[in-house]
Amino acid sequence: MQLSIAWIIFAYLCGSVSSAIIICKLMRLPDPRSTGSKNPGTTNVLRIGGKIPAALTLLFDAFKGFAPVMLAHLFGIEHQWLAWVAVAAIIGHLFPVFFKFQGGKGVATMLGVLLGLSWLLALAAIVTWLLVAALFRYSSLAALVATALTPAYAYWFADKTFLLPLSVIAIIIIIRHYQNIQRLWAGTESRIGQKKSNSSSDDSKGSTK
């Protein structure tokens, strides 16, 4: 029990390392918390600095979710606690203790924790994202659908003990995307590949990572 709690704390601290903020600082880019959509995530870093810093942000956001889950598994954490380690990593990303609790939206980190829990879970989420994105051309909608279906995928393809923790993750991430949901409902959300007409429209669009 005590060891499991230690892994949960470790996962939260890993999640609290904000890849977007650190990469922007190292590459002398504006702070993503005060520029663009003001969200420290991959999409906003792409807007601020281009493909390379965005790709690095995506990679490290996923890795900080994958690493604590995989390490906890390798070191023999009790199985029923493993998915709660994943929850802690997500919460760390959303509310990072090292960065005044101003975090991203959790999609890339969720992909990392899913990969740590089960490669089938991660594959199902990726395929869902790709299908929805191809059909509707909305990155945020693809992320929301993939996130919402993750608990069901856990029930079908992985371990039923993951169902409750992954439901918690899905609820948190969907709530975090409330602005994207409002824009989708209003028909003002940006589509994949859509050019921004001006800088002010950039500021009004939230990222999905």
Written account of the structure:
Helix 5 runs antiparallel to helix 6 (107-117), helix 5 runs parallel beside helix 9 and helix 8 (139-157) runs antiparallel to helix 9 (163-176). The longest helix has 24 residues, at 51-74. Residues 197-206 have low confidence and may be disordered. By secondary structure, this protein is mainly alpha-helical. 70% of the residues lie in helices and 0% in strands. The radius of gyration is 16 Å and the shape is globular. The chain contains eleven helices and no strands. It has one domain (2-204).
Question: In percent, how helical is the residue content?
Answer: over 70%
Q: Which sheet architecture does the biggest sheet show?
A: none
Strand content: under 5%
Low-confidence stretches: 197-206
Number of domains: 1
Average residue pLDDT = 90
The helix count comes to: 11
The coarse silhouette is globular
Count of DSSP E strands? 0
Radius of gyration: 16 Å
Structural topology:
Blueprint: H1 2-15, H2 19-26, H3 42-49, H4 51-74, H5 79-94, H6 107-117, H7 119-136, H8 139-157, H9 163-176, H10 178-186, H11 199-204
Helix pairs in contact: 1-4, 1-5, 2-4, 3-4, 4-5, 4-6, 5-6, 5-9, 6-7, 7-8, 8-9
Q: What's this, in brief?
A:
The chain has 209 residues and is mostly helical. The chain has helices at residues 2-15, 19-26, 42-49, 51-74, 79-94, 107-117, 119-136, 139-157, 163-176, 178-186, 199-204. α2 packs across α4.
Summary tags:
single chain, 209 residues, mainly alpha, 70% helix
